[in-house]
Specification:
There is one protein chain. With 384 residues, the protein is of the alpha+beta class. Among the domains are: 69 residues; 64 residues, SH3 type barrels; 133 residues, L,D-transpeptidase catalytic domain-like. It is built from four helices and 26 strands. The strands form six sheets. Strands 2, 5, 6, 7, 8, 22, 23, 24 and 25 form a nine-stranded mixed sheet that branches. The chain has a seven-stranded mixed sheet with strand order 1-9-20-19-18-26-21, with no helix packed on it. Strands 13-10-17 form a three-stranded antiparallel sheet, with no helix packed on it. This is L,D-TPase catalytic domain-containing protein.
């Protein structure tokens, strides 16, 4: 009984105390603390407190970030687009030696009775229809001509760009090498501890120039620089001189290639254009010839010490003398300069563009950095 009484008295005291607190709040005349917290995404109209998660989301929105995060309106094309129509092998004898070609596998294996030679050179790739290895594991391949040579089957790049179904809201890009982000746009800023792998996709929410590079904000408190990335700058309006609704854009500074139609970005990817002194010439051009499969070979030096041979290069689109957009099955990295003037794409990307493009379509080549020579007299015919 005494215990029940003590509990009853305690409850009465508590109720009196709470009543006094309530009256004290009422006496203050402030209704601010009676308002509920705003839910994330609610407008700041004075009917709720913009604190906690709602405040964080509002601040992110003001900085250009969406909640929930919005992905790009795009997808990777089917992987089958990147399957090569031929088998490729690289001649694996010393580059300063001509490569012998034989009439039979037995002659190739024993190194006897060569019937002709492929010139010496560092980059020599052949297409083949059959492969054999000897007991020592040396590779030999049979050419479409029925001849044999010593060459090792080569892997080719599987990277593919993005196909878009509407224009994205932000610029975007890919990492071209593994790199860690910074907390601010400076090499002196601390790193975040977040490491992005090669070909990681990101959106750009802000861009600043600092320390000789462009810096891109890719997440709250995360920045990467133009040295480790290739970015697509959205330009849906036709370039000057383009009087149709279709064009290809080649951005030499960013090393990105884009396809536009009716003001919509249809496709975007990384590319490789010409390096000094074999720059890819800026200007406005039109595709004058398409080749589904053809050899590319030649040299620039008088002594032909830089001879190259790429047999059966698929999906070529010629737009400026010998300069073309085409597959580069021998290349492992895109997003960097490195060709002799042509625009190199992965097999899947070249295939996509080849199917879309028509002879007569415009190709707009430009360099926003101004580092590429624009005087037409500087340029030769170009090469892969």
């Amino acid at each position: 009984m005494k215990r029940i009484l003590r509990v009853t008295l305690l409850m009465i005291l508590l109720s009196l105390m709470l009543g006094n607190v309530h009256r004290a709040v009422d006496a203050s005349g402030s209704a601010y603390f009676e308002q509920p917290l705003c839910l994330p995404g609610m407008p700041d109209d004075g009917t709720c407190l913009m604190l906690g998660p709602a405040q964080v989301i509002a601040e992110l929105k003001a900085a250009g970030f969406t909640y929930p995060p919005r992905g790009l309106p795009a997808a990777t094309p089917p992987s089958e687009m990147g399957v090569m129509p031929v088998f490729i092998a690289q001649i694996n004898i010393p580059e300063d030696e001509p490569a012998p070609i034989y009439a039979s596998f037995e002659d190739a294996r024993t190194g006897t009775n060569p019937i002709r030679f492929i010139e010496a050179g560092r980059m020599r790739f052949v297409s083949y229809i059959e492969r054999r290895d000897d007991v020592d594991g040396t590779h030999y391949v049979k050419l479409a001509s029925g001849e044999w040579t010593r060459a090792a089957p080569a892997a080719y790049p599987r990277f593919q760009g993005l196909e878009f179904y509407e224009n994205p809201k932000n610029n975007f890009g890919w990492m071209i090498t593994e790199s860690e982000s910074y907390v601010a746009p400076s090499f002196n800023a601390p790193k975040t501890g977040v490491v992005y792998s090669k070909h990681s996709l990101f959106q750009v929410f802000d861009t600043v120039e600092a320390e000789g590079y462009l810096w891109y904000q890719i997440a709250p408190g995360e920045w990467i620089n133009s040295h480790v990335s290739g970015v697509v700058i959205l330009r849906p309006d036709p370039p000057e001189g383009v009087n149709t609704n279709r064009w290809i854009e080649l951005d030499l500074f960013q090393q990105t290639a884009m396809v536009y139609e009716d003001g919509q970005l249809l496709f975007a990817t990384l590319m490789t254009s010409g390096w000094e002194p074999f720059y890819t010439k800026p200007g406005l051009f039109t595709i004058y010839e398409k080749k589904e499969l053809a050899d590319m070979l030649g040299s620039f030096e008088a002594d032909r010490s830089d001879y190259y041979l790429f047999q059966d290069v698929p999906w070529q689109m010629y737009y400026d003398e010998a300069r073309a957009i085409h597959t580069a099955y021998w290349r492992t990295n895109f997003g960097y300069v490195g060709s002799h003037g042509c625009v190199n794409l992965s097999p899947g990307d070249a295939h996509w563009m080849f199917l879309w493009a028509n002879e007569g379509d415009y190709v707009w080549v430009h360099d926003t950095s101004g580092r590429t020579p624009t005087d037409p007299s500087y340029y030769g015919p170009g090469a892969p």
